[in-house]
């Protein structure tokens, strides 16, 4: 039973997923990702869309050996909780790095990557992954 | 306030029941609870996580109720991932406490061994956020591994110290007749076992197994009419939630919903953590137990693993934690686990638990968790 890729679902989530768009609470000021209809910290519905910084540090990581269906070709599959430079946390895979090279606290930057392919229909889903930062700190503008 | 009594309990051995279906297992546990109580329940609550996906069976309330001879009774299905059992008990407790019905059978059942591990792993992963965690291949074990590494690095706890929990669970399960894993293990065995999601190893994880447990709850009025008045009652219940996705939590080394649920239950019962004689807590992974011990106030933050290594929480100590062997060794038929826990604490207080016994236990706690900290329930049980 592999996770199915739904084109409608992938399309619906394209903005938060591809552009790392989160939300900022107008009441408590905290930012969260993924975007939700209300602030998970204070419950306020007064939120604005924000583009999150694309660099941060690995707060914690895990290397998954027993992978889920649909990720067989990925094992070992490293995932991390990344604390972005504004403090927002994002959970995503790590890429362009060997499992043995990963350290808590290492600086990383967000890139768009192919995440997986639907086994049955061949649909491809893209999303954010983090790789060790090349140059830093960088702004979005300088990435060209 | 009118009390809600535990009039009967029933549990099945946890394991690979290839010859028995969902209904057979539920019936075994349900019949024991009903026969022990000597009363037919006025309503049924079925707790289950995976039947919709693995057995392709919905309508579980009616399916189980009619299948065990209770056709016509109101019957519900309650789901909260691995916290389904506790959530169902919370529902059943509320139904009796409100006076809506005077007895409820809460029966938890799960059939996990019909499919290969990869299929079950994918199904279990649905406890997490589908769009922002599963999408990225962060398996449920992977998410718990994120919390485990964070804890170990933050508090400087090494592998061997963490291994104390699974070693103690296997020790406790040795004489539990319905436990899934009845063999002794060492810290070395844990460290050498297969890496599932580094730093989580196979022996940090609860096994995949089938099982069912049932608890029959009755009102105080009905309890007084039974030939043998029940000796255990639910003195307090609590429930709380947190975000399903890990990244939005306040901290990666905390399960605040556990603290909230436990505080509600303790306050309602009028007891403090130091009054607890026995506890059954949710240890699907080693890290779950460590964090829950701290949230429940049994150890200071960052010190639960070391307290274990110093010998705390073993049989003889107060509180004794998971004398059943816990999810780790008794087994973890996910949607049934919370019902097992309450049945076990009730048996400890009654004095007829068939495994490691906590002599003279008067007050106990059962803490069940759904997801990696998103749905928590806590129940305080006391001797009447």
UniProtKB/TrEMBL annotation, chain B:
One of its GO terms (biological process) is isoprenoid biosynthetic process. The keyword Zinc does not apply. InterPro entries: Thiolase, Thiolase-like, Thiolase_C_2, Thiolase_N. SUPFAM superfamilies: Thiolase-like (SSF53901). Keywords: Isoprene biosynthesis, Transferase. Residues 20-221 form the Thiolase N-terminal domain. GO terms for molecular function: acyltransferase activity, transferring groups other than amino-acyl groups. Residues 238-382 form the Thiolase C-terminal domain. This is Acetyl-CoA acetyltransferase. It comes from Pyrodictium occultum.
